[in-house]
Structure formats: C-alpha cells, structure tokens
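chain below, 192 aa
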Amino acid sequence: MIQPKLTKEQIYTYEDYLTWDDDVRYELIDGVAYALASPSSYHQRILINLTVQLESFLKGKKCKLFVAPFDVKLESESSKDTVVQPDLLVICDKTKIAKNSYNGIPDLVIEILSPSTASYDCIKKLHCYQQAKVPEYWIVDPHIQKVYVFSLENDSYVDKVYEKTEALESKILQGCHVILEDIFEDDVENDW
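prediction:
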C-alpha cells in the first residue's frame, strides 16, 4: 500500500485512495486528502451510547446503522472523488452497500466533534453533506454537550440545536427519540 504525502496542492482520485495503507485513516473530499486522528475515550463512549439507542430503534426496520471506519463514497453530481468515514450513518437503500463501503447518499450521517476535527466537521463536511444532499446530518459536540441537527429542506440545511436535557427527534427516522442525557455520560471525564 502507498502512503500519500499530503499537500494542499495535490488532488487525489478515488482510485488513489484505494491504494493507500489501511492502517491510517483518511477521508477524501473533492480530491483533497484529510488524515483522521484517533478518537478520545469520551468520543468513544458517546459513539457507543448513540449506537445502542439507534440500533435499538432500528431493530426490525429496513434502515441499518453503520459505525466508523466504514467508507462512504458519496456519489452525486456535486461530490467527485469524495470518500468519508462518518462516526455513524444510517442507510435505508441496501442495494448500494458493497463489501467494504457504501456507494451513494446515506439517509443520516452523525459526526462527533473532537478538538482536531471540529472546524472540519462543522464547515468542510457540513458543506460536503449539504452539496451531496444528505437528508440529515447531526453534529454531536461533547465539549458543550449539545447536538446540532441539520435537515435538508429545498437543497439547504435548516438546523435545530438540542440540549443535553432534551430528547432529539429525527425527521428521517420517524418516531426516533434519542435521549441526550444517556448520550453524554456524567461519570466519564470530558477529555475534549
């Protein structure tokens, strides 16, 4: 496997991405490679807690939950050479699931912020997901214990902020109420 030398000027293709070392995680947005850092312990706890609630809700339904690392090759007119690895994603169209990836637009994408990815997730990926027309995008902020839900309406995102004391309601997953107090544990150190 080839390890890329990341430069802002270099543009990579999806074919380049497939040759890179699997031991180092990257995302590719419009041909630009971004290295992914290892998540913190608090990030991992939030990921597990969200997984438990969402998997419980989705049991027996047609939509399926996937956890990173899992490649999502965003296939749309606006997303060329774009491969992301969201922390969590929900897929309702199982026909586009390949052995190691999903080739299409997920129904729901969730990113959990960390200090090294906060601006990337809130700016670059927000724009990327909106351009690709991902119907719903959640940004989970462990530092202030809030969740920002972006729902696609007329090709633009409309956002709603949920506090730790609230239950998050998904527009995509009708009837899904995520209890945020159970997501943001008090007994785990917030190592933001």
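The longest helix spans residues 41-58. The chain has a mean pLDDT of 89.
thats it, cya
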